[in-house]
Amino acid sequence: MKRIQKLLFPLLSLGILLTGQTLIYQATAQPPGQQRAPLPPIPIKGDTTHTLTRHFKLATNTKIAPYANGFIHRWLVLEPIKKDIARNNIFTDNYLRSEFKNNNFSEDYLMIPKAGEMVKVGNQALNWYALDSKTFNFNLFNFSYDINKPKYGLLFWLVTVIDCSEEIPNVRMTAGCNSGGMFWLNGQEILMLSGDRDMIVDNVASPLLTLKKGRNIIRGAVINGPGMANFCLRFIDQRDHPVKNISISKD
Amino acid sequence: MKCKLIIFLSVLLSTTVLAQVGKPFIHDPSTIVECDGKFYTFGTGGGGLISEDGWTWFGGGVRPGGGAAPDAIKIGNRYLVVYGATGGSPSHKGIIYTMWNKTLDPKSPDFKYSEPVIVATSDGYEENDAIDPGIMLDPTTGRLWLAYGTYYGFTRIIELDPKTGKLKDGNKPVDVAIVCEAADLIYRDGWYYLLATHGSCCDGANSTYNVVVGRSKKVTGPYFDNVGRSMMEGGGKMVVATRGRLIGPGHFGRIILEKGVEKMSIHYEADLDQGGRSVLGILPIVWKDGWPVAGEKFKEGTFEIESVRRGYGLELAVDFSRMAVAQRGFSQANTEPIKPVPAQELADVIKNWPTGNINVRIGDYMYRPHQKWTITDAPDSTGYLGGPYYKIVLAGTERALSATADAQVITVPVFTGSPEQLWRIDQLTDGTYRIMPKVVPNSGKKLALVSSGDSTPMLAEFDFDSDNSKWNFRAH
After folding, report:
1. What is the ipTM of this complex?
2. 3-state SS string over chain B?
3. Which of B175, B233, B268 would best serve as a mutation to test chain A binding (most A beta carbons within 10 A)?
């Protein structure tokens, strides 16, 4: 009974939980235990404010190196597009392509948005942020909480710029995300992460590709229903070593 | 048409691998614990399952407090039961409780749980959900550790006081993994292993639950998988995934029966043969290159029973019958068309065998009728932890392997179902098998099939350190 919240929207969860427990009792013929008492007060242990700097730094104009293990931690991220998603196992390849196509902020995959810029997707007006994650992964659940937006049922657009001082051939883009996502490099679809995935490092890897000299633009999209939206991305060489001789910028 | 139906049903029956029998319906089971000769596991919601033999399970276990995903361990002469107060609340507020009982038998006069004690909480804001506890008593230090958490944020480890079951004074949680549920700690040969469930649950046959593992030299981590990926990065080597019609295993617990004989308790999110219900599963643990992996519940079939000692096969002690195929290929012109040679058939030789009891021995395996054994689930409702007793007969006959009162092994002309003709088959931690009769007549001893010298099967105490005690089943 641990992924109830990942299966259903929070507003429905309590009712379904109770129904689910009843069904389990019926199905298992186990004697139900004592009724669960209300939880005693649980002290709050940390900062609960809606503050971006808890988990991120605002990106500066200075290029940065990826983390030591190669993870790309600077991203332009668009405020989440609210989606009505009850279960994550609906994220088939076709579903993702269709949703990302129908909820795209721009068909120009080489476009680099600017922090503070507003775009409209459907009837939602959304702001771009430029952020450096304090961790190897980019936690979109925390991002949404930090900007006081909903936590579940969300679609995020992401953009970052990789600068290479010289061409880097024979590398792979790898990513993990919770739950579904796609990534493009210089306008080409590179990674498809379909299904109800967990964010696992190097969970999906691209065929060998070349990072060109100069600017390389990565576009990403991550979608999640219930659960913790999250992703990580890096490049690795043919021996699975992280590619670190690159820099990251926001424009 | 009727014949086809029978064949179809036979195939269906022979390929069905039941998780457990009875009413083994449970979700998020605790590690199976033995108490006064019975086996117990508790699940989400409050109840639990009880088994007299470890194979047939029914409801009847009692765990107060409701909530979800308990774990249990025997410490000294008491049982510590630990559980999450919620089933994973939308707010991610949660509490882990511990409580003691002198017995797990609800019919015992000593059955009484102590007042639950809070050992961990999640406040609804931190990146952790205080449910899904897994507990380990470190065999090297006697220290008591508890892992908890779900996919929502981090899996954490805390230390408890093994005397009180309370949080050890001053202990702070340590983050050890992400994207995990139902983490459990185990120790083996200098390594701590963190076994956890990845994937999603609670969606029946669509649940993607699977159990993965990382290991560390320190109980507080960091835990890495077989490719060096940290479990803080989502790493984990597969231990058990969906197998056949048993979908979505999760909630690992380890049971050490004796040296070389280990089992895991899990649940399957859906058993397609039992209406898609969530059921208890028990599988052997095999250790391969320092990593645990789920072994196989024995599958019925016809096999060579190979002694690991030398690689010879168990056979009926009857005259070897030569096949009528002359030596070929030496200094002969290979101009004739190649035609397959039929294998020796039972009908070719059985008429030469005695009709009464026949001894068995171990010899060169030659794919002959007296060396092929058909092993099927015996028409007997009893079993042992994780399996039913089996009937072992010479293929194509009812001639059954049987234990004798003088700790020998013979074959009798007809299988009668008597206990000395029922065999327990356990896959061992090195992947080989132990074969034991249900009873040795007039003996209370637990004896196993052992190779004495290269040639003589007998019954003796099982010794995991000796290949004499180990067997393989080869399907040729």
Report:
1. 0.87
2. CHHHHHHHHHHHHHHCCCCCEECCECCCCCCCEEECCEEEEECCCCEEEEECCCCEEEEEEECCCCCEEEEEEEECCEEEEEEECCCCCCCCEEEEEEEEECCCCCCCCCCCCCCCEEEEEEECCCCCCCCCCEEEECCCCCCEEEEECCCCCEEEEEEECCCCCCECCCCCCEEEEECCEEEEEEEECCEEEEEEEECCCCCHHHCCCEEEEEEECCCCCCCECCCCCEHHHCCCEEEECCECCEEEEEEEEEEEEECCEEEEEEEEEEEHHHCCEEEEEEEEEEEECCEEEECCCCCCEEEEEEECCCCCEEEECCCCCCCCCCCCCCCCCCCCCCCCCCCCCHHHHHHHCCCCCEEEEEECCCCCHHHCEEEEECCCCCEECCEECEEEEECCCCCEEEECCCCEEEEECCCCCCHHHEEEEEECCCCCEEEEECCECCECCCCEEEEECCCEEEEECCCCCCHHHCEEEECC
3. B233
